[in-house]
Amino acid sequence: MVVTRFAPSPTGKLHLGGARTALFNFLFARKNKGKFILRIEDTDKERSKKEFEEDIKNSLLWLNIEFDSFFRQSERIETYKELIKKLQSEGKVYKCFCTKEELEAQKLEQISQGIAPRYSGRCSKLTKEEISFFERTRSYVFRIKVEPQKLEINDLIKGKVIFDTLLIGDFIIAKSEEEPLFNFATPVDDALMGISHVIRGEDHLSNTPKQIIVLKSLNMPIPQYAHLPMILSKDYSKLSKRHGATSISELKEEGFLPEAIINFILLLGWHESSDREIYSLNEAIEAFSLERIQKKPAVFNEKKLIWFNRYYLLRKSPSEILSLTYKDFKEKYNFQDESYILKIINLAKERASTLKELIENSFYFFEEPDYKPELLIWNKAPSTAIKEFLEKTLNVLEGIEEKEFNPEKIKLELSKLSPNDLGLVFWPFRVALTGLEASPGPFEIASILGKERTIQRVKKAIEKLS
Q1: Per annotation, catalytic residue among 85, 150, 234, 241
Q2: How much is the pLDDT for 234?
């Protein structure tokens, strides 16, 4: 049975790279009718935070990446403790009493001799008397004995990879019996949870031989490994926040949709043989395979993420968008009329790329715009001429009956004021209503604002030119 896992440390919010790893594990498990496990690796007591664990869980669920089981490593300490004792009793693990200074001196000596730095194994040769003495006088860590050998794995993405354990040396697996380190707790959990495939970033490739050594020492099954290509910025440097690498929860706050993010990260390092770009989550499950994951790094393109978001936003009905934004409209503008907000959404969604942009760009529907008088001027026309046309616009608007105050009627009547240069009428009218050079059609805006507020704003524009 295929069993995959996503095993983040709760030391920060879930970012795009982690979300992609979770997605690929989820897709592979679902495609093969298997299980997907979320395992929080929180044995680092100092850096692990409950708030980050909650962010990871909530972000995955918001993305509709559902996990079948949930574990915390901190709740499995007794398991690791017993296994460390077992390895000790079998002579496969020993206590190391070397100080930082001694280890640094050893490292410098090896470098000076042109030897790759690794632990010398000196504490593995201590007598019982020496061990007893050091236990009373020094702190210690646990190291696992590593036999010189060539470890070969068939990575499902990278292909055959060979590791020389001579370059690794005896490595630390725990700070104490109750403080296991990553390269011990992780493979132990993978084995005990029946993980069949470990799909993770290639930055973990160097951990793989150490984890295999642990599994072999415990006579536990070794999963298949697949290391995903890194995600880089456009200039092929390491992706950072300045390139737009934000957390999933921050993207949610910025108004991105979960289906857009899923579609975007799906194509970061994976493609079908066709040029297809649009996938629902169910379609992604059906299409996904490890064979189509590329070996070279994926490149983060924020514009493409925005393109996906706009694609999915345009396909949502105004009522669907209202359900996603009503709370934010209410909090930002202290306004609760759903029918009014629905009209705004219907008009504004065509020009928005995110939910946040839609909300913020609709400010003029809730508050009077502030702008400089010069913005009212069309094509260098005299301000007196613009004022005159605004006054004519006011007269026309006042003459339209309330029941006929709709976009078609407003446009029809205002078009008569300057048929040879509509800009003299339409431009200052738009600015009067929105304070902007670009916006949805001023006639649609006026219709939503209503006759009274539209007239009020035109009057203020006239005052600005007086």
Answers
A1: 241
A2: 81
